[in-house]
């Protein structure tokens, strides 16, 4: 890169690359002990194979909270501390954000913190001047004494939970889920805190709003079309199904109230009914004779 480097010299390139200049002496020139110089003689040492070897700088950081590498540097330094995103100087004493009287010190890139040990019957305080000043009060409730933070039920009722907080008792009811049934279908069983939905009563039959008729379960009827039959099911719903007529003939006899025409009882021709194998004159041409045949 246009710069001469002495053999064996080491330097740092941009990108935290550590480079060194390595050269070698030709093997054909053995290295001899230096003899005293004679007048008129000079010693000449020839070098060859000048080579630059580079490798990424390996950082060894012997501390837990090092400072970021300074501008132009490659490795973090332990000359200070970086704690919770804040740079601290060597020997700096400070309190963390959620300290509660905890004190920390920066030493050689390491942060050491100490929390107060409060004696029994006291608790840590947020005030640095009085770290162990608060004393939780017990609760006297309905003839019984409860320690600070104790949770208990009200008169053995698991539906109410109480807690002792600094001499005061706070009670709250157990939250109940939202029910999706109407009020008259809700019930509260013995020993239960929350109501549950009762199963709706089984329907006694099927009620039809159009004509106000109630059919018992299992009843089969036709709603007006003889080819459609309906049945009242056990859950109170109505299921209907149509009948498909498969037998057809050109002149069947239609029986009132019957779905499919009857092709075996005789023939209906020009408004008259004729029995099987009956012969009769045509109403269109008196010279023609007709007969009713079953096919």
TrEMBL record:
<dbReference type="InterPro" id="IPR001007">
    <property type="entry name" value="VWF_dom"/>
</dbReference>
<dbReference type="GO" id="GO:0005576">
    <property type="term" value="C:extracellular region"/>
</dbReference>
<feature type="domain" description="VWFC">
    <location>
        <begin position="1"/>
        <end position="79"/>
    </location>
</feature>
<dbReference type="GO" id="GO:0098586">
    <property type="term" value="P:cellular response to virus"/>
</dbReference>
<feature type="domain" description="VWFC">
    <location>
        <begin position="204"/>
        <end position="264"/>
    </location>
</feature>
<keyword id="KW-0732">Signal</keyword>
<feature type="domain" description="VWFC">
    <location>
        <begin position="79"/>
        <end position="140"/>
    </location>
</feature>
<keyword id="KW-0964">Secreted</keyword>
<keyword id="KW-0325">Glycoprotein</keyword>
<dbReference type="InterPro" id="IPR052080">
    <property type="entry name" value="vWF_C/EGF_Fibrillin"/>
</dbReference>
<dbReference type="Pfam" id="PF00093">
    <property type="entry name" value="VWC"/>
</dbReference>
<dbReference type="Pfam" id="PF23334">
    <property type="entry name" value="VWC2L_2nd"/>
</dbReference>
<dbReference type="GO" id="GO:0005737">
    <property type="term" value="C:cytoplasm"/>
</dbReference>
<protein>
    <submittedName>
        <fullName>VWCE protein</fullName>
    </submittedName>
</protein>
<feature type="domain" description="VWFC">
    <location>
        <begin position="137"/>
        <end position="198"/>
    </location>
</feature>
